[in-house]
Amino acid sequence: MTRSTHPPLTDERLDRLLRNALADRAEDVLSMAVSADEMTERIAMRPGFGTARPLAWRDAPAGLTLLIVIGLLLAGMVAALVIGSWPRPPITGELAVIGQVVDAVNSRDVAALRSSFAAEATVGLPQIRSDGLQESAASDSDWGMSKELGFVEAWMFHIDSWDMEAALRSCQAEAESTFRCDVTTLWHVMQVEIGEEWTFEFDGPQVTRLEMARVEPSPTNRTLPLGYDDLASWESWLEETHPEQAARLSGNEWIWPFYFRYHPEYAEAIGASIQEYLESQRQP
Amino acid sequence: MSDPEAMAIADQPRADRDGLELASLDAFVRAHYPRMVGLAGLITRDVDQAQDAVQSALERAWRKRRTVREPASLRPWLDRIVVREAIRQTRSGPLAMLFRRPSADWADLAADMPEPAEAAMLREALGRLSPDHRAVVALHLHAGYSVDETARLLQVPFDTVRSRLRAARERLRREMTEVTP
User: Fold this and answer.
1) Nearest to A235 by CA among A250, A248, A247
2) Residue A169 falls in which region: left (phi positive, over 0), alpha (psi -120 to 50) or beta
């Protein structure tokens, strides 16, 4: 059953209504948001803007998260020491699940990946600053495994675009249900190799938390020619030799800008450019 | 360029190797914050998320301000950063949501004020679009970018923007002409 609207809802009329609605909503948001002066103050107090400030509940969720993570880690360590179970040998069943997760990543099998995780599990991707250093583990790139968020697919698309392969090196039980694993990630399209730590937290047989951290952005003993740090050299070379490509290929924003700042849409072109860069470096 | 935007640029902008010379952080924020937080709010539907997105975008923009060579490109560059940040905010995981204050959804804003039923329906229908679709609608119909400019700003193909706009219009029209049983 439908009702008629008067006058008819043509594209023009709909757009006019939309413009009005959007302008009203934007005004509403602005009226409820903090003032420009307060925003300036917030930004000025951020690290790197010249003024240090104490952590605050409302203003520093990332800092708060970091504090809580550190607190939880300390509490976990104390608890582990008290019960005398740290370190302890890995549990076969949980290692098998870790293997399944890595296999699912390498085979880009979203269903298999999800089946290893609890419904409300979360994933934290590593954040690397532009200078190659690791951001805090408590990143704002956390995302849920729940089906409706679609981030698993987005992440799979991302790693598939770069033909990423995860090689599990070793795992160590850190606590009753936490395992820290050394993983080498091989980004074949970019010919980049990165040393990472993947920390798995379990609730029974299911993973409730996977936290990835880049511990060695440019491993010295690697099989692929480049480390993460070398990408800066490639970018410089690109800017010098192909300035028309540089702006397009390097430094594109992506939904996880610190994870990999290159847009997967340009994966093929970037791979070709890196190959050309490597060949230029080999020439006498 | 509006007056506040002109204020944010100290002298005649130089298209030299140093990029734009901006007057101060204060003037920079005052010139761009109102527009950016409104735009971000249209995408996030949440005032806190919009503020977080704008803060993050302004911080990043201020640090990289010297990479902007042309004054005309400043606004699209800022809008591009804030829109991406706003979309990312809408995809924050459960952990991030734990530390967020209670949501102030834009669909609830001014809900106690009388308004025509059509506008209320449209507001609710807009809120049900995906963040990607809201971003396209907001950039094209609110911020005034053409389809081509929106595509370049979002770094997606022209046809993708056109298709998202068409899909958004169709969905809004459908929702506004259907009567819920």
Assistant:
1) A250
2) alpha
Q: Of A26, A37, A123, which has the smallest distance from its Cβ to B42's Cβ?
A: A26
pTM (predicted TM-score): 0.46
Min CA distance, B30 vs chain A (Å)? 5
Contacts of residue A236, Cβ cutoff 8 Å, sequence gap at least 6: none
**In chain A, which residues have their Cβ closer than 8 Å to the Cβ of B39?**
26
pLDDT tens, position by position, A9-53: 788 888 998 999 899 889 989 999 999 999 998 888 776 564 433
CA distance A243 to A210: 39
Cβ contacts of B80 on chain A, cutoff 8 Å: 253
Q: Using the beta-carbon criterion (under 8 Å), do B104 and A32 form an inter-chain contact?
A: yes
Instruction: Count the alpha carbons within 13 Å of A118 in the hemisphere toward its beta carbon.
Output: 14
The continuous run of DSSP H or E covering A211 comes out as strand A206-216
Query: Distances from the Cα of A25 to the Cαs of A156, B56, B111, in angstroms?
Result: 35, 21, 11
Q: What are phi and psi of B105, to 5 degrees?
A: -65, 140
pLDDT for residue A252:
55
B98–chain A nearest CA distance, Å: 10
All residues of chain B having their beta carbon less than 8 Å from the beta carbon of residue A144 are 93-94
Q: How confident is the model at residue A208 (pLDDT cuts 50, 70, 90)?
A: confident
Can you tell me whether residue A258 is helix, strand or coil? coil
**How many helices (H) does chain A have, and how many strands (E)?**
9, 6
Token match 């459908």: residue?
B174
The pLDDT tens digits of the residues spanning A74-87 come to 876 776 555 544 44
Instruction: Report how far Cα A27 is from the mean position of its chain's Cα atoms.
Output: 33
Residues A114-160 pLDDT 10s: 888 887 777 777 655 444 444 443 344 456 665 555 677 777 888 88
Q: Tens digit of pLDDT for each residue in B57-71?
A: 898 888 777 777 777
